[in-house]
């Protein structure tokens, strides 16, 4: 594809950095000219360091932009944004208190925001950066447990889906995803399985279970646990107080970043009601308020603020988070939906950059009743690890937006589940009967495992469920006496199993704890899982969930699915398409075929018979 010549961005950025030394008073024009002159000397060191980070950002962005144009032009089909009109006059002034924001008359654009009250400066970044600096947390597959030794499995539920859409983006572009980018539970939970819903909101969700033979080893079994949240009609969703926290740093210039952020949030804005409120905070080298709390009835004002955003500068995410929570507190709606929606590539490089410090900041703020949703964008420098962790500790959810269609799925189709929490700190505990189940293995949820004692401890944080959410978990079980054990026998035996064998009719006992919004004491649901539930033929939902879980395992190396091949995975998925109004299951089959091509030694395409 031919492109017109462009000036070297790094040269321009360095030139701009040199000019800042002579223009520092302009960068600090928050008050009158006398105040700016007095602050210039103190700000000169800050300006130089931010300028250096800006220059490094510009150099790295050029490499990412080339990749973005190739991938996004084909899939997103989105034209570059038009030149922005002159910035509108909007008011803001951040006080040091997190609980108060005053509004004054200052002019703001994405490149021209007020410095935060406090900024922890970092060493200057080197302009030389790797072409790909994406960051993923490492997790090993859950191990196989011998039931007689460890009969109890405890974990927190997870409603995130970002791993699947991020991996989809890579496969669509012909890139083999790294192992750590694949989280099996987020693959499985990306899809709906038509689980039965609860009858009322009094008990906010319904738990169902299904048991069938494992397709890759008929001597083993798969246990599917499904949770369906009460689906609150849109008209009954309480008023929403939303803060759009948007990364407008230089790393967000690519087509699949800030332009796609704008497209995604436009779709959400169109769903707002007059009783809803929206604030808009942006952050680059520092954070600023672009839009004070505005009624959903003033849709044009909100869309206009979005349209004026531009990308440029370094990335001070910490100050942006502080300012966003301050706005959310100021516009807090008692009994309503109070949430910060962070849209970013996660590439924080100025101010508070330590992941643990950012997690602590968000964890402290969740006590105020304000949740955090993170929306990941872009490639090349995407920090998946941080985006997921911030959502986890912020009592929210994480999604990755790779196309306008995905934005519609997350922010329109699933708006209720994205915004409205109906149950907090949801934990699952399964106690397996050692007389019936010799071994078990939880598929996915590696970073959600809890200690056994955490289950009844209401101080331990866990996942939340939104209105209409479905959560699915799978266990692979080795029945006692099946001969399919994977752990070697113990030299000195396994003790007396009869003493704690329980009811021989039961395979396991399921316990689930949750809190209703506004409550601090958890409630308990429990039910036995009977051996008689074993079905010779799994349902369509279990078949498709099995194919998705196997796909995730195959991308991670295929260590848990025996001799099952890409053909086997695709064939099972194709036989289980069922109702597919959005084409998501059909797209999954295509991804399996693409993954087969990328991983096969000879590049032969996977063929799936009709």
Task: Provide structural commentary.
The protein has 610 residues and is of the alpha+beta class. 31% of the residues lie in helices and 22% in strands. The protein has helices spanning 9-20, 24-27, 33-75, 162-172, 184-188, 258-269, 299-307, 317-330, 355-365, 384-393, 404-413, 415-419, 540-555, 566-574, 584-599, and strands at 89-94, 101-107, 145-146, 152-156, 205-214, 217-229, 240-247, 277-283, 287-295, 337-344, 371-376, 398-400, 421-432, 437-443, 463-466, 470-479, 506-515, 523-530. The strands form 4 sheets. The chain has a 6-stranded mixed sheet with strand order 9-8-7-10-11-12, with helices on both faces. It has a 5-stranded antiparallel sheet with strand order 3-14-16-6-5. Strands 4, 13, 15, 17 and 18 form a 5-stranded antiparallel sheet that branches. Strand 10, helix 9 (355-365) and strand 11 (371-376) form a beta-alpha-beta unit. Helix 1 (9-20) packs antiparallel against helix 3, helix 6 packs parallel to helix 11 (404-413) and helix 13 (540-555) runs antiparallel to helix 14. The model is unreliable at 1-51, 68-127 and 603-610 (pLDDT under 50). Residues 79-88 have a biased composition (Pro residues). Residues 241-419 form the VWFA domain. Pfam families: VWA, vWF_A, YfbK_C.
């Amino acid at each position: 594809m031919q492109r017109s010549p462009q000036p070297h961005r790094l040269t321009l950025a360095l030139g701009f950095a040199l000019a800042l030394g002579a223009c520092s008073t302009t960068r600090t024009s928050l008050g009158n000219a006398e105040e700016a002159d007095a602050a210039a000397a103190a700000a000169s060191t800050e300006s130089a360091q931010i300028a250096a980070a800006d220059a490094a950002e510009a150099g790295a962005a050029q490499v990412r932009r080339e990749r973005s144009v190739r991938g996004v032009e084909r899939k997103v089909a989105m034209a570059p944004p038009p030149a922005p009109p002159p910035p509108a006059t909007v008011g803001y002034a951040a006080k040091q208190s997190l609980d108060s924001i005053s509004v004054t008359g200052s002019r703001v654009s994405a490149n021209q925001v007020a410095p935060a009250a406090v900024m922890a400066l970092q060493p200057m970044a080197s302009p030389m950066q790797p072409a790909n600096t994406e960051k993923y947390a490492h997790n090993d597959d859950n191990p196989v447990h011998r039931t007689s030794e460890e009969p109890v499995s405890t974990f927190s539920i997870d409603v995130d889906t970002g791993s699947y859409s991020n991996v989809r983006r890579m496969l669509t572009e012909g890139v083999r995803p790294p192992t750590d980018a694949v989280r099996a539970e987020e693959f499985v939970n990306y899809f709906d399985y038509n689980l039965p819903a609860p009858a009322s909101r009094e008990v906010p969700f319904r738990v169902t279970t299904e048991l069938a033979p494992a397709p890759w080893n008929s001597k083993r079994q798969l246990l599917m646990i499904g949770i369906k949240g009460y689906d609150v009609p849109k008209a009954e969703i309480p008023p929403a107080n939303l803060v759009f926290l948007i990364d407008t740093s230089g790393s967000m210039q690519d087509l699949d970043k800030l332009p796609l952020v704008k497209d995604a949030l436009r779709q959400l804005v169109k769903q707002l009601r007059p009783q809803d409120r929206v604030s808009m905070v942006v952050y680059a080298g520092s954070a600023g308020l672009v839009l004070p709390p505005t009624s959903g009835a003033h849709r044009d004002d909100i869309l206009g603020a979005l349209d004026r955003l531009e990308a440029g500068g370094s990335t001070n995410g910490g100050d942006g988070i502080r300012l966003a929570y301050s706005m959310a507190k100021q516009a807090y709606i008692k009994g309503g939906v109070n949430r910060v929606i962070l849209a970013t590539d996660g590439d924080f490089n100025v101010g508070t950059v330590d992941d643990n410090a950012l997690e602590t900041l968000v964890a402290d703020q969740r006590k105020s009743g304000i949740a955090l949703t993170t929306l990941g964008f872009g490639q090349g420098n995407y920090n998946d690890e941080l985006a997921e962790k911030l959502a986890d500790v912020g009592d929210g959810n994480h999604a990755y937006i790779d196309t306008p269609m995905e934005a519609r799925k997350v922010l329109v189709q699933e708006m209720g589940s994205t915004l409205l929490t109906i149950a907090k700190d949801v934990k699952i505990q399964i106690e397996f009967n050692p007389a019936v189940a010799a071994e078990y293995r939880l598929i996915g949820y590696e970073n959600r495992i809890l200690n056994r004692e955490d289950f009844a401890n209401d101080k331990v944080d866990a996942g939340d469920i939104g209105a209409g959410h479905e959560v699915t978990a799978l266990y692979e079980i080795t029945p006692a006496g099946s001969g399919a054990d994977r752990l070697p026998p113990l030299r000195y035996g396994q003790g007396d199993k009869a003493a704690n064998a329980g009811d021989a009719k039961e395979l396991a006992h399921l316990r689930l704890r949750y809190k209703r919004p506004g409550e601090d004491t958890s409630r308990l649901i429990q039910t036995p899982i009977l051996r008689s539930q074993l079905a010779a033929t799994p349902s369509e939902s279990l078949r498709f969930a099995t194919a998705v879980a196997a796909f995730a395992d195959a991308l991670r190396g295929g260590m848990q699915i025996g001799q099952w091949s890409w053909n086997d995975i695709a064939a099972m998925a194709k036989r289980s398409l069922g109702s597919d109004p959005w084409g998501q299951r059909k797209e999954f089959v295509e991804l399996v075929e693409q993954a087969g091509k990328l991983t096969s030694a000879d590049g032969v395409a996977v063929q799936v018979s009709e």
